[in-house]
Structures are given as structure tokens and as C-alpha cells.
Amino acid sequence: MIESLKADVKAYFQSTAKPRNENLVIWDGFDELTKPIAVDFFNGKSWEDLLHYLQNPAVGYAYLEEWAVLSPIALAYYLRAYLEFLIETLSGQQDHDEWYISDFFHWQYQMIYMHKGSPLSPKQTAVIVKIAEHVVIEIKDYQRFADIGDDILINIDLFLKELNQYGK
After folding, report:
1. Do 1 and 75 touch, CB atoms closer than 8 A?
2. Pair 98, 145: CB distance under 8 Å
3. What is the pLDDT of residues 86-138, one digit of tens each?
4. For residues 124 and 23, what is the distance between their CA atoms, to the nearest angstrom?
5. Strand, helix or coil at 25?
6. b/e map of 94-132 (b: 16 or more CB within 10 Å)?
7. Which of 70, 83, 81, 80 is nearest to 19 (CA)?
8. Residue ranges of the domains in the chain?
9. What is the torsional sign of CA 66, 71, 77, 83?
10. Contact at 8 Å (CB) between 65 and 34?
11. Rounded to the nearest 10 degrees, how much is the dihedral formed by the CA atoms of 110, 71, 89, 3?
12. Separation in Å, CA 32 to CA 22, 66, 84, 149
């Protein structure tokens, strides 16, 4: 299943040109304190740079909150790094950081809430739902992530309910 998820991420989150600095966020009067932090962090970074950043255990997985305020173009571009890191975490390639899994789905919920629906393409959104469904099976059928499995399930449920509210 992990290989199928990897293939879907690669197929539907193909890298395009890095978003330009002025296209990283939409200055709409909301989240004005977080947006400059997001612009400072993401400016000039490729999705590959971000993936290397996430893989560095010395820095952790910061910038999920800042990621959520990115413009739809930037969201789709940088999401590949977050998804690849999530799949690495699920497959055991990275030390298990169950909090990353929980936080990832919390910020997916936030993304849907902020945009009043998915700002991603239907195929990209379907990939994230497929990953969420895989995580639910891992928790319910195989008792993975025992320490915070309930928290992960709550965040996945919030994400899926918010997505369904806006008709995917």
C-alpha cells in the first residue's frame, strides 16, 4: 500500500515551477501575523529543499501552521514534501513521529476550513483522502500509533468532515 501511495503522490503532485515570492500567500487581511513568517521561510525553497528540512531531526517538522496560510498554488507545490515525509513516517523510514501524523491532518482540516473547500485539484485531494484512509486502517486494524492513535483519528475525522461539508 505504501508504494501505491508514493506513486500517487509522485503522479499527482508533480513538481512545477517554484512559486514566486509574491505568489506564496494571498494578502487578504486574514492571518497577517503568520503570512510574513511563511513568506520568509518558503521564499526561494523548492519542495525538495523543504523535504530535506523536514528530514533533518535537528529541526523537526515546523512550518505546518505556516504552510496552511500559503496560496493555493504554493499549497499544491509544497504539499509534495509534506506528503513524502508523511509516507516516510508511515513506512518507518523516519523515526516514528506520531505527532507529525496528527498535526498533518489537523492542518489539512485547517486548509479546508480556511479555503471553504479544497484548494487542490480533485485528484490531489483524493490522494490525501486515500492516505487518511490508510492511516485509519493502520490504527484500527493493526493498532499502530498506540500513544496518540485516538488524536490522529480525531484529526482525520475533522479533516474528512470538513472536506465533505464543502463537497470535496
Report:
1. no
2. yes
3. 999 888 765 557 888 999 999 999 999 988 999 999 999 999 999 999 999 99
4. 20
5. strand
6. beebbbbbbbbbbbbbbbbbeeebbbbeeebbebbbebb
7. 70
8. 2-14+29-165
9. positive
10. yes
11. 110
12. 15, 11, 29, 33
DSSP state of 110: H
How would you write 40-75 as a 3-class SS string? Answer: HHHCCCCHHHHHHHHHCCCCCCCCHHHHCCECHHHH
pLDDT tens for 64-77 read: 667 778 999 999 99
**Is the Cβ–Cβ distance between 66 and 81 less than 8 Å?**
no
Q: How far is CA 161 from CA 27, 110, 166, in A?
A: 27, 12, 9
Residue-level length of the chain:
168
Q: Note the pTM of the prediction, 2 decimals.
A: 0.91
Question: Which residues have C-beta within 8 Å of that of residue 138, sequence separation ≥ 6?
Answer: 90, 144, 145
Instruction: Using alpha carbons, list the distances in angstroms from residue 31 to 48, 76, 111.
Output: 26, 19, 13
